[in-house]
Amino acid sequence: MHVTSEKHLDGGVLEREFTLGEVPGILWTSASEPPAAAPLILLGHPPLGLDRMYPRLAARARQAVADGFAAATIELPGSGVRPRVAATEEARADLRRAMAAGEPVADDVVDRLILPLVEQAVPEWRAALDALLALPGIGGPVGYSGGVISVGVRLAAVEPRVEAAVLFAGSFVPRAVFEEARRVTIPLHVLLQWDDEGNDRQASLDLFDAFGSEEKSLHANMGGHTGVPESAGEGAARFFARHLK
């Protein structure tokens, strides 16, 4: 991990941009010396680029640091400054054509869009976790929050250091991910926008049902994809405080 810049934000937050190989990322920690190593929350996000997602990520990170956590994120494959993936761009174009025409999105399109992203992104998240936990002032346990839900499912299934997750039901889910969900056993807090215009509500409910976790809760709010109420973030914060502290 190579730190490329650092700056102090309001509220006593230290923000450090870094690269891990070819993958850019951002780490937020308390600017003061904590009494003990802080638990870590990995902040997932949609593949829109860190620059575009920065305001929302920074707001979530500030809240996490105020609650006593460190927070970090990395750029997803094919997003932001990373090279585009031709097959992914083609699948995304097919998705947009189907949605614009009001047609069902074929399973093949969802698979081509999501599964390669999961295959590449999850090892990168695990490598970032190796590097982050080696830094002074950061320790376990680790939580994962938000992002492409299929990435969160795979990470929760294969990474034992992730002990709790907040998942956002707002992206298309390949059928293969439903089987992976049965292997997820950590505590889960799942957010669902009931009227999400780009989300298959029944698929989200079926995925929630598939999770193998003994402790899982589904929090549904009225409204579209961008209408998540502030109280949803407050509930997620309480969930992490219970399970990571």
Written account of the structure:
The chain has helices at residues 50-66, 86-100, 107-133, 149-158, 175-181, 201-210, 230-244, and strands at 2-9, 13-20, 23-30, 38-44, 70-74, 138-146, 162-169, 188-193, 216-221. By secondary structure, it is an alpha/beta fold. It has a single domain, classed as Alpha/Beta hydrolase fold, catalytic domain (Rossmann fold, 3-Layer(aba) Sandwich). Helix 1 (50-66) links the parallel strand 4 and strand 5.
Topology:
Blueprint: E1 2-9, E2 13-20, E3 23-30, E4 38-44, H1 50-66, E5 70-74, H2 86-100, H3 107-133, E6 138-146, H4 149-158, E7 162-169, H5 175-181, E8 188-193, H6 201-210, E9 216-221, H7 230-244
Helix pairs in contact: 2-3, 3-4, 5-6
Question: What characteristics describe this protein?
Answer:
single chain; 245 residues; alpha/beta; Rossmann fold; nine-stranded mixed β-sheet; 9 strands; globular
Quickly describe the structure.
Helices cover 41% and strands 27% of the residues.
Report the end-to-end length measured between terminal Cα atoms.
26 Å
- CATH architecture classification: 3-Layer(aba) Sandwich
Q: How would you sum up the global shape? A: globular
- Beta-strand portion reads 25-35%
Largest sheet data: 9 strands, mixed
Q: What's the domain count? A: 1
Radius of gyration: 17 Å
Total DSSP helices: 7
- Portion of residues in helices? 40-55%
What would CATH call the homologous superfamily? Alpha/Beta hydrolase fold, catalytic domain
**Structural class by sheet pairing and helices:** alpha/beta
Chain-averaged pLDDT: 93
